[in-house]
Structure formats: C-alpha cells, structure tokens
Sequence to fold (416 residues):
Amino acid sequence: MKAIIDLCVVPIGVGVSVSTYIAACERVLREAGLKTQLHAYGTNIEGDWDVVFAAIKRCHEVVHEMGAPRISTTIKVGTRTDRDQTMEQKIQSVEEKMKAEPGA
Amino acid sequence: MKAIIDLCVVPIGVGVSVSTYIAACERVLREAGLKTQLHAYGTNIEGDWDVVFAAIKRCHEVVHEMGAPRISTTIKVGTRTDRDQTMEQKIQSVEEKMKAEPGA
Amino acid sequence: MKAIIDLCVVPIGVGVSVSTYIAACERVLREAGLKTQLHAYGTNIEGDWDVVFAAIKRCHEVVHEMGAPRISTTIKVGTRTDRDQTMEQKIQSVEEKMKAEPGA
Amino acid sequence: MKAIIDLCVVPIGVGVSVSTYIAACERVLREAGLKTQLHAYGTNIEGDWDVVFAAIKRCHEVVHEMGAPRISTTIKVGTRTDRDQTMEQKIQSVEEKMKAEPGA
Fold:
C-alpha cells in the first residue's frame, strides 16, 4: 500500500534546540530509500506503507539512542485506492486551481 | 518498544457520516488485543509499537475495503525510555497537578 | 461558529515531565467556561470557535510565563453546518455502530 | 505573539477531490498578508498569532460557503520566547546539521 506521510518528531527532555535529532531522522529516512521533502514543520514522505513506518520506528530508536528520554511524534498518513498520486501532483493540483480562479 | 498513541482516521469520499468506518477501526484495534479508549476526536491506544502500527495499517485496509477511496489519518505517538507509563497514569498525573494547585 | 477541538500542548526545554504545564492549560480552558474532557494524549474541547482559540492562545502565554521557552501544539478542529453535534454524540454514534454490527 | 503554523484542512462530504477547497484556503491566507509555503500535506504559515488564526477561521467559513458540510482540520503551532526564528531558518538549521555529520 502506497502512502503519503507528513512526519514531525519532537524530542522532549533535551533542551530547546532539537535540529540535531531532526537531522538524524532525515538521514534514517534517506537511508531507507524514501523520497522525502523537508519543510518548516516536518517532513513529507512518499513510499510503501511498511517501508515508511519501519523508518519512523527507526527514527524513534535513533533519537532515544542519542539521549532523548521522551519523544512525541505527529504523523499524517494518506492512502487512496481511486488513483496513484505523488507528492508533486498533490501540490500541482492545488496550484493549478489557484491559477484557474485568480479572482475568486 | 511500548507506545501510547492517539489515532484519528478520516475517510474521504463517503459522505458526511463516518461513524460506521470508525466503528470498524475500533473493532480492528480490539481484535488486535490492544488497550483502547475512544474519545470525541479519536482513540487512545496503548501497546507494543509493532502491534499498534500493524493494526493501524489494517484499519486503512478495512476502511478502503468498505468503500472509502481515500483516507487521511492523524497519529500522535509517544515513547519514553526514562520510565514506563500507562494511559491512566498520564491522565492521573495531570489531574493530581490540578488538585495540588487549585488557586494557580 | 461551534467547534469540537482536540488540543495537545507540548512544552519544550523544561525537561521530561510536563504535567504541571498541561494542568495549567486545563485550568485556562475551564476558566474560559469551556466544556473539556482530558484524555491520555490531549484534551477534547467543545465551544464557540472564538472562545476556544482565545483560550488556546492564553495556554501558550501561560506556559511561556511558567518558564517554557518553546511550545509545539497540535490542534484538531472540526466544524459542521449540516447539524449540531456534541462530543458525547460523536462517541455515542461510534459506540452504537459497534453494537449494531458485533460480528462485522 | 509570533507563530509558525502547519495547516491541513480536510473538507468532508464533497467527494474525493479536495484541491479546489485547499486552493481557496491558500487565497484566504495570502489575502491576509501571511507568509505561506504549500507542501504535499498542508501549508506552512508564519505570522502573528491573531492574524493567522483569524485567517484559519476564515478558511473554515469559506470552505463551508463553497458547500462542504463538514471540515476536519489539523493545525500544528509553534511559539518560542528564547529567540526569533523564521520558517527558512528552521529548515536551514536541520540542513546544516545534516551536512555537518554526513557519516552519522
């Protein structure tokens, strides 16, 4: 099952700066061969359900190993059976609608 | 790895009433032997990471089989290595703080 | 506009135990006269959109005043125009479907 | 209070294709003068708390006016008092850490 995911990992108990932990998660996702796109409040991921969720579990393991005693992660996951859709197509679909109705 | 999860499954393309699909997910979670607590905007789940996420995948499969062409799910997942904590203990911990500082 | 909300406030940079901050948010919500229900991964809130979001802003102010330098909050908000629905009715609707189709 | 937000609006009861509604929300956000960045599972927004949340409320009003009887929205909101940080700086901070530890 193909899925498009949005992942936001928040390490707790390691102070206010968390980018080192997020960078480690990015590496885990890329090593898993997943297509990812970092944004300002998380990371978009496209891939097979099992591969994505194995990588997310690995993120938790790695962030704990790095010293974070607690993690609170938010995941959005979309699946559809009506048609295949990539991350780029989702963005493109909205942008086309914006151009089509500029005065709306 | 033990996890506490909050799950909110939103079937898209099946009209405005979605409780039949949510009820089917609840059954999937219970059949997986997971401890769950339904609330007004999702379900709390406590259990082993792999068992929980296998059940969430099964929820997507079942909801698609029931006819929903698209699903958008939100998951919060918390893990901690400093100590074991149940769903009841999380609630209790907040309630005790509320009693302790009534005038704060 | 009436809304049903799920709120999860995560203070960052104050160590691993955050229940004191969550308890303070609960008090803010109750002082705002809002109907709330604490669960293991957040709080359900029912009320007028403006009242709820003013209270959520107040939660951020209070948690910062208590010393948290950073907060990451997750909010789910549902509105509907087809009919009025309470938090209890949302839960009841799912539970009725579960009883109706026990073998499904 | 300055905030960085991630917004994901899901109209329910209008079929499987929702990009027209998302495009309308994008226009609402831009008309409010907000800095936004669309991604594959939502939109990042940077701005003053009150301006952002007034715009999100307007999104719900507009999407209902367009015919959606029900909306389920997910919002992540981050605030910090230790320093000012833009959306670009958040991304840059993670990317620098990834370059710094390529073999990690």
Summary: The radius of gyration of chain B is 16 Å. Chain B has a mean pLDDT of 95. The interface with chain A takes residues 1, 13, 49-50, 53, 57, 60-61, 64, 69-82 of chain B (CB under 8 Å).
